[in-house]
Amino acid sequence: MSRRSTPERLHAARREGTLRRLILAGELPDRAERLIVAWETEADGRNLEHDGTYWDAGWEWIESRQTGPRSPSF
User: How many angstroms separate the CA atoms of 61 and 56, rounded?
Assistant: First the structure.
């Protein structure tokens, strides 16, 4: 039995994908998680919807704050 996609599930999957992308780009897991949480706090302050652009905007915001190696474009 397959599960139906819900906005919450899609958001969680995109969050996890962004976290993994940061780690694959060379970010330490703990720092990657802190960057994700910092983005979520920033996005909440901006009242952003959890739509398809949320994590795209998050990636750009996170990249601008990374001090470590930059990731390749995916």
Answer: 9
- The stretches of 25-64 forming alpha helices (DSSP H) are 29-45, 54-63
Question: For residue 11, with 0-12 CB atoms within 10 Å meaning exposed, 13-18 middle and 19 or more buried, which class applies?
Answer: middle
Rounded alpha-carbon distances, angstroms, from residue 42 to 36, 38, 70: 10, 6, 21
Of 21, 33, 26, 19, nearest to 67 (Cα)?
Answer: 26
Number of helices and strands in the chain (H, E) = 3, 0
42 close to 60: Cβ distance less than 8 angstroms:
no
pLDDT in tens, 13-53: 999 999 999 999 999 999 999 999 999 999 999 999 999 89
pTM: 0.82
